[in-house]
Design goal:
Elements (H helix, E strand, L loop, with lengths): L2 E5 L3 H12 L3 E6 L5 H6 L3 E4 L17 E4 L10 H18 L5 E4 L23
Parallel strand pairs: 1-2, 1-4, 2-3, 4-5
Length: 130
């Protein structure tokens, strides 16, 4: 893989991006907060701001990645809200429809519906108790 695009480069995105850099990939990492650009650049990523409520207002769509990691988290309040969901859906749909990730498209979802907090294994058969 030569180039990866991480949509939503928070905790998990930074870990995945760092591993990809170790493997020699170029990593473009997005955030919704401009104040995080320096942090992401300091990790070796090519940072970009992506406003999920205005997904067309960023040049990342021209990045032509080999793989996309879509790791958009809900807002700090826990409920992403209608605008966030619409923006996230628009941006994910645009990536897929544009064929920007012909090699791989990894969609990361929340484990927030699981109650386990003791480090035990959580999988599809685990009871969901938000």
């Amino acid at each position: 893989m030569k180039h990866a695009l991480i949509i939503g480069c928070g905790y998990l995105g930074k870990r995945v991006g760092s591993r990809l850099l170790e493997w020699g990939a170029r990593v473009t990492a997005t955030t919704t907060r401009p104040e995080r650009l320096a942090e992401l650049a300091g990790l070796g990523f090519e940072p970009a701001v992506l406003d999920l409520e205005a997904p067309n207002d960023t040049p990342i769509w021209e990045a032509d990645p080999d793989a996309v990691v879509y790791s958009v988290a809900p807002g700090r309040a826990g409920d992403p809200g209608v605008g966030f969901r619409d923006g996230a859906l628009d941006s994910a749909t645009r990536l897929i429809e544009a064929g920007l990730a012909p090699g791989a498209f990894v969609f990361v979802s929340s484990t927030g519906v699981y109650h386990q907090r003791d480090g035990s294994r959580v999988d599809e058969a685990s009871p969901a108790r938000p």
